[in-house]
């Protein structure tokens, strides 16, 4: 069998591809908690868990947090806010102002996305990136599919308010075609 020699460039490439091994020493209670998550099937293993934590840390810009109590994502200070509290606020808005109020909230969210992600959500080419930020922010899975916006399990449950919110972010007009989750909006403009 022929042996192949790998030059230094090949070794360097293999080392970069393989990554580096790191030892992490957990506090006993943290290790027990992680093992419990794995036993219960909530996490597949230590490495996927750590990778997920890095993804969350990066996507939520946790390096800017002043924990506990002040959380920022880009330029926006955020708070953990229950769906029930949002629903109560939406119920206070007069019926004929729901879409307009949602649109104003969406426009503010668009400014935050543009400032923190350097992505103009009003440009159709950027809609996928803008909608991905909504998932990161906890608004549900909102995706673009061939001229349609699909909202799976949306955080905002009022259809008129949600429609206006998405219109404000994307700078477009939407028409709800399917009004139960997953909600399907057709892009009108």
Characterise this structure:
This protein is of the alpha+beta class. The chain has a domain at 99-187: Muramoyl-pentapeptide Carboxypeptidase, domain 2. The chain is 48% helix and 14% strand. The chain has 7 helices and 6 strands. Strands 3-4-6-5 form a 4-stranded antiparallel sheet. Helix 5 (98-117) runs parallel beside helix 7 (159-170). The N and C termini lie far apart (65 Å). The mean pLDDT is 86.
Topology:
Elements: H1 8-18, H2 28-39, H3 46-59, E1 71-73, E2 76-78, H4 83-92, H5 98-117, H6 127-137, E3 141-145, E4 148-152, H7 159-170, E5 174-178, E6 183-187
Antiparallel strand pairs: 1-2, 3-4, 4-6, 5-6
Helix pairs in contact: 5-7
Brief summary:
Helix content is 48%, strand content 14%.
User: How are helices and strands ordered from N to C?
Assistant: HHHEEHHHEEHEE
Largest sheet: 4 strands, antiparallel
Percentage of helical residues? 40-55%
Instruction: Specify the overall morphology.
Output: elongated
Pick out the low-confidence regions.
none
The level 1 CATH classification of the domain at 99-187 is: Alpha Beta
CATH homologous superfamily name of the domain at 99-187?
Trafficking protein particle complex subunit 3
Strand order of the largest sheet: 3-4-6-5
Looking at the overall shape, the CATH architecture of the domain at 99-187 is 2-Layer Sandwich
Mean pLDDT across every amino acid position: 86
The N- to C-terminal Cα distance equals: 65 Å
Strand content: 5-15%
The structure class reads: alpha+beta
Rg computed from alpha carbons, rounded to a whole number of angstroms: 22 Å
Number of helices: 7
CATH third-level topology of the domain at 99-187: Muramoyl-pentapeptide Carboxypeptidase, domain 2
């Amino acid at each position: 069998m022929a042996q192949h020699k790998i030059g230094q460039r090949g070794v360097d490439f293999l080392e970069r591809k393989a990554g580096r091994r790191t030892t992490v020493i957990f506090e006993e209670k943290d290790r027990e908690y992680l093992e419990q998550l794995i036993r219960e099937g909530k996490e597949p293993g230590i490495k996927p868990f750590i990778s997920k934590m890095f993804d969350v840390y990066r996507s939520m810009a946790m390096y800017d947090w002043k924990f506990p109590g002040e959380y920022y994502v880009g330029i926006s200070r955020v708070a953990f806010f229950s769906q029930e509290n949002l629903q109560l606020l939406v119920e206070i808005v007069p019926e004929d102002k729901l879409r307009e109020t949602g649109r104003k909230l969406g426009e503010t969210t668009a400014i935050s996305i543009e400032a923190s992600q350097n992505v103009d959500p009003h440009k159709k080419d950027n809609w996928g990136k803008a909608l991905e930020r909504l998932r990161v922010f906890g608004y549900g899975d909102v995706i673009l599919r061939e001229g349609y916006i699909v909202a799976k399990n949306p955080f905002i449950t009022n259809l008129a308010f949600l429609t206006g919110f998405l219109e404000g972010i994307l700078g477009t007009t939407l028409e709800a075609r399917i009004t139960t989750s997953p909600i399907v909006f057709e892009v009108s403009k």
